[in-house]
Amino acid sequence: MSVLNSALIYNTVRISLLLKSRFGCFPPLLVSRHSYVNTQVLAYIHNRKMQHMKIAMIGLGKMGANMTRRLINSGHEVVVYDLNPDNVTHLVSEGAEGASSLKDLVSRLSVPRAVWMMVPAGEVVEKTVTVLAELLKPGDTLIDGGNSYYKDDVRRAGMLKERGIYLLDVGTSGGTWGIERGYSLMIGGEQDPVQRLEPIFTALAPGRGDIPPTPHRTDSVSTAEQGYLHCGAVGAGHFVKMIHNGIEYGLMQAYAEGFDILLGAASESLPEAFRYHFECSEIAELWRRGSVISSWLLDLTAQALAEDPNLSNYSGYVTDSGEGRWTVQAAVEEAVSAEVLTAALYARFRSRQQHTFGEKMLSAMRQQFGGHIEAGKEEK
Predict the structure, then answer these.
(1) What are the CA-CA distances from residue 374 to residues 27, 223, 320, 353 (Å)?
(2) Which of 10, 110, 196, 276 has the smallest C-beta neighbourhood within 10 Å, fewest atoms?
(3) Cα(first)–Cα(last) distance of the chain, in Å?
């Protein structure tokens, strides 16, 4: 027997045993350096990810409803529930299966069940988890796709584990555009349920699309290029999403301040020779093309300015949903300097007292990417 064949047999047996423990069956061929075997492995994994599943979705707001639609469009069956029966009715008309209560929802799933929550962090999540803990059975999986605090995930997972129920925390980014673009999924929890639910993650994630691979990346097994990633143990997914949102605060604040300075260049307090009257909508469009600061956020900024050049529909009242505060708190606990992210958070606090053009731009960007409506419309 050749050295090559021996290596193939060794790798086939070794990886087959690994996947048997994860998937419950033996694949015919598995990973080695041999291109034919690699081709078979990738085909096997692809076919598994394309399997259709039945899952429940609780919370049919902007995100939950669109995620349900994306799953249905991918061939999955989705049982839906929301406190507002009209939201359930709308999605039933689009192919979902409606439930009248959490108990009814669980009864419509076969074991092992998978229930995805897209409800507000805090008390609502706590109450929902408490009720579902009594309804779900050992081997079932509860997914929190909202923006819960990662330390709460660890506590809830411990409580559910005593009942044999898995908890996955899935930081979900994509906003109202996710139904078309896909959702970036940051996953925390045990390996087994993550592997079992790969068809769901694959359907929700953007996929590789037309984004070229990062030069020098060699890990072809990672799912990061598909737009979803198992980040680690329970809490890891929401921790990564927390930092993601903290960075988002900083990026948005940088754009807002920059455009505020551009607008201020026309101030009569400046010498006439140094006054400039910039069309911010034109500058935004310019920077979208070839600039090193181009981004999806800039695309949305340009769109907001094209629709309303003076941002007259915005007061500049900018809310924060908690992740920015938790990011700064984590930085303090780790003794990590985070000046930009901290300043961006404080700028949001200040926006509730006085409103500048830059703060209106923050409101405009939040409305564009997430459909967020200002909490306070009155100029102060």
Answers:
(1) 52, 36, 11, 14
(2) 110
(3) 82
The one catalytic residue in 62, 137, 198, 248 is 248
Mean pLDDT on 197-209: 96
Could you confirm whether 248 is annotated as catalytic? yes
pLDDT-derived band of residue 320, with 50, 70 and 90 as boundaries? Answer: confident
- Averaged pLDDT score across all residues of the chain: 88
C-alpha dihedral (344, 347, 348, 349), degrees to nearest 10: 130
Share above pLDDT 70 across residues of the chain, in percent, rounded to a whole number: 85
- Considering the entire predicted model, what is its pTM? 0.81
Which of 17-31, 291-305, 334-348 is the least confident region?
17-31
Place of tokens 């009155």: 378
- Indicate which residue of 241, 257, 323, 374 is catalytic: 241
Question: In degrees rounded to 5, what are phi and psi of residue 81?
Answer: -150, 140
Contact 362, 301 (CB under 8 A): no
